[in-house]
Amino acid sequence: MEINHGLLIVLSGPSGAGKGTLCQELLRQMPDLKYSVSMTTRSPRPGEVDGVHYYFRSRQEFEAMLAKHELLESAQFCDHYYGTPRFAVEQAIQGGQDVILEIEIQGAMQIKKCFPQGVFTFIVPPSLDILSERIHKRGTETEEVIQKRLATAIQELEYVSEYDYVVINDEVPLAVEKLKSILIAEKCRVKRKPFVFKGGV
Ligand code: 5GP
User: Fold this and answer.
1) Which of 79, 106, 132, 141 suits 1 as a labelling partner, its CA being 20 to 30 A distant?
2) Domain for residue 105, yes or no?
3) Is the minimum distance from the CB of 186 to ligand 1 under 6 angstroms?
4) What does the alpha-carbon distance between residue 192 and residue 143 come to, in Å, rounded to a whole number?
5) pLDDT at 54
6) Is the C-beta atom of 104 inside 6 A of ligand 1?
């Protein structure tokens, strides 16, 4: 990465681990951080707004974006497509802005291949029981979909070793503090800093 480019923060982990809540809280506390709005073929949940939470698109529209290489990564998750529009992310990073992606693991691994300088952070629930409780409480999916998501989550937990950081989401404020510390530390990395001594003996 060239100096002065923004950071690409990839937040991923099983569905129901609380990535969304942590991401929203992080964005509230770090208003300069840019959220990458994903594209999906799933239907909006109550309260979700096109262009804010996701770009809700048909399969045909999604596949057309894929064919034109307009997505940085994409994945199929529980029978739907999800993907990250390329242009907004590239533009922000090149302009020095930090960008956060909240995506599942297949997509995160694609980003790791094409952009290894990213900061890859895995969010885990405190336990599988709590994960199940959280997905049920959300009340937005059928039992069949919930079971599919739980089975996927168990497989996904094995990917933790592919990430730079892991944050257990037991208490939201604590987990957010940990994420902020990660970002601050990453921004202080010598390799990311334009740090040059002028003069000398
Ligand atoms: P949900 O349907 O619950 O909003 O999201 C399902 C899963 O898809 C979550 O794990 C979420 O992080 C992930 N996801 C959301 N947007 C993207 C994306 O652009 N790419 C990928 N690979 N996963 C995404």
Assistant:
1) 106
2) yes
3) no
4) 46
5) 97
6) yes
The pLDDT of 98-115, averaged and rounded, is: 95
Q: Is the pLDDT of residue 186 over 50?
A: yes
Residues facing residue 56 across a β-bridge: 40
d(CA 133, ligand 1 centre) in Å: 19
Is 198 part of any domain?
A: no
In a domain? residue 70 = yes
- Closest C-alpha to 106, from 135, 132, 83: 83
Residue 173 domain flag: yes
DSSP 39-72: EESSPPPTT--BTTTEEE--HHHHHHHHHTT-EE
Pairwise CA distance, residues 113 & 67, whole Å = 19
Q: Nearest Cα to 6, choosing from 23, 30, 37?
A: 30
Split into its structural domains, the chain has a count of 1
Q: Whose CA is nearest to atom 22 of ligand 1?
A: 107
Sheet of strand 80-85, all strands in order from the earlier edge strand to the far edge: 54-56, 38-40, 80-85, 71-77
**Distance of alpha carbon 40 from alpha carbon 157, whole angstroms:** 23
What CATH number is given to the structural domain containing 60? Answer: 3.40.50.300
Range of the domain at 158: 8-188
pTM above 0.85, yes or no: yes
